[in-house]
Design a protein that fits this description.
329 residues; alpha/beta; Quinone Oxidoreductase, Chain A, domain 1; Rossmann fold; 2 domains; six-stranded parallel sheet; 28% helix
């Protein structure tokens, strides 16, 4: 396959353009492993790249898509051989390196991990960066020494990709999960994933106080800004919040009061550059601990030619759960 189908973002004097076109394999970037992609997924970052709403893309032309699963086609990396099933999340894919919305990619083998046993390619992309990030958040809370007997855990942006998986993972781990959402009509969906309580996001979006009534022992925040500030002010003594998103903004209008008066910890969670050993640990736990029925309940599947419209929809906050993108049909 010297040419293949791909979503391509380009830029000219009039602005950004995006469409599906034929791409030449000779124009792929450097790497020691070439992968034939079977599936990708849709993350909020992918939506930002497709719409140009934020400067996600750092070079042009760019193929977006930060996640992939596929089969190794050629490899000069000793860890991988043709026919191996592999997963890739992050490492600048779809930002600085040609990404996953294409039938082929060429990448560094150090970025790849084997597809975990117990997960199909479709399930791996139903998890995607969103679910893998949710697991990193749970692991960060556990490393901090927190457990369900300390009290409830809050998840903000709970209907989104990270939030949906975080609700399911925390509930499976025994936490009393409080799901915060601006979409109250999705209460049954969240309860089906394991949420014990649903609160309206308006409870967390007003101006924050330095300290508010203690409500949460732990949490996963995907929103940032005033939402995270409010959650921190409501976190119990010795609790911690794992922060991994900025859907509400990059600012944090908070005070030091929760940190120095309640011994609260803010745990930053990055999934893009996480070391390989941590990635493998997270993915193995996902394969073991994530309820496959709940994963299916939060997942929809689209073909590649629908990803542009879906990218616009996710930025508008209208996507529920996880979206798998079929690259090869």
């Amino acid at each position: 396959m010297s040419t293949f189908k791909a979503v391509v973002i380009d830029k000219n004097e009039a602005g950004q353009t995006v469409g599906i076109r034929t791409f030449n394999e000779a124009d792929l970037m450097d790497g020691d492993v070439t992968v034939r992609v079977s599936h990708s997924t849709l993350n909020y970052k992918d939506g930002l790249a497709i719409t140009g709403k934020a400067p996600v893309v750092r070079r042009f032309p760019m193929i977006p898509g930060v996640d992939l699963v596929g089969t190794v086609e050629t490899s000069s990396n000793p860890e991988f051989k043709p026919g191996d099933a592999v997963v890739l999340n992050g490492w600048g894919l779809g930002e600085t390196h040609l990404g996953a919305y294409a039938e082929k990619v060429r990448v560094k083998g150090d970025w790849l991990i084997p597809l975990p046993q117990g997960l199909s390619p479709e399930q791996a992309m139903a998890v995607g960066t969103a679910g893998y990030t949710a697991m990193l958040c749970l692991m960060a809370l556990e490393r901090h020494g927190l457990s369900p007997d300390r009290g409830p855990a809050v998840v903000t942006g709970a209907v989104g990709g990270v939030g949906s998986v975080a609700v399911a993972l925390l509930a499976k781990a025994g936490w009393h999960v409080i799901a915060s959402t601006g979409r109250p009509e999705e209460a049954d969906y969240l309860k089906g994933l394991g949420a014990a309580e649903i609160i309206d996001r308006s409870e967390l979006t007003g101006p924050s106080r330095p300290l508010a009534k203690e409500r949460f022992a732990a949490g996963v925040d995907t929103v940032g800004s005033t939402t995270l500030a409010n959650v921190l002010s409501m976190t119990k003594y010795g609790g911690a919040i794992a922060a991994c998103g900025l859907a509400g903004g990059m600012d944090l209008p908070a005070t030091v009061a929760p940190f120095i008066l309640r011994n609260v910890a803010l745990l930053g969670v990055d999934s893009v550059m996480a070391p390989k050993a941590l990635r493998i640990e997270a993915w193995n736990r996902i394969a073991r601990d994530l309820d496959h029925d709940k994963l299916a309940a939060m997942t929809s599947t689209i073909p590649l030619d629908q990803v542009l419209e879906a990218g616009r929809t996710i930025v508008e906050g209208k996507i529920k759960g996880r979206v798998v993108v079929e690259i090869a049909r």
